[in-house]
Amino acid sequence: MLEVQSYSSDGVEKGKVTLPESVFGKEVKEAPVHSYVKGFLRNQRQGSADTLQRNAVRGGGAKPWRQKGTGRSRAGTNTSPLWIGGGRAFGPHPRDHSRKMPKKLKRAALVSSLSDKAQDGKVVVLEIPTFESPRTKSVASLLERMGVSKNKVLFLLTERNDNFILSCRNLKNVQCIRATQANAYSVLWADYLLVSPDSISTLEEMFGK
To answer: I need a labelling partner for 174 at 20 to 30 A (CA). Which of 35, 61, 70, 182 fits?
Structure first.
């Protein structure tokens, strides 16, 4: 059984909460996590880098100088990659770096990353506070009371909480995502996972099969 600390919305300890073994108690498998992270980073690339080859560079036309008798090396065009301002040889061109990943791979990577965080004691259950307006100082004070203000923190939410998300936006190393959009990369990025009680049920329902 995995028991983690639970906090109220104002950062006061409430006791221990048991995490489901189907999501937080599995064996940590490095292979799917590694494969998923590589694919995730590939999918972030734009692939829009482009360079001009010698046939696309403006110039050319007349031969820069005659073939023989000048003492210089032969030159046929000023668009050659050997010349300053000439074309680029073997330069990058627009391409698609995206990589499709199977659903089973995504699930295995997420469960392994969640289990790794839980086994390291980096998962905390928190009742997410609700604000009438964005209050960044309140969230900063909450993290300070919990002792995680100097760490990278990932909040997992279930219900839409725009004011809380806006409150976290200006805090360095703090991210908020829906539990249904949880992924292994975001989990591995964070030092601590602060999950709402409802998020645990959502994760178990979606990924604990």
So the answer is: 35
Three-state DSSP at 191 gives coil
Which range of residues forms the domain containing residue 78? Answer: 51-91
Count the domains in the chain.
2
Are 51 and 39 in contact by the 8 Å Cβ rule? The answer is no
CATH classification at residue 189 = 3.40.1370.10
pLDDT in tens, 96-127: 999 999 999 999 999 999 999 999 999 999 99
What is the rounded CA–CA span in Å between residue 112 and residue 184? 8
In terms of domains, do 154 and 183 share one?
A: yes
User: What is the per-residue pLDDT across 148-158, written as a single tens digit (0 to 9) for each?
Assistant: 999 999 999 98
CB-based contacts of 94: which residues, under 8 Å, 6+ apart? Answer: 47, 48, 49, 50
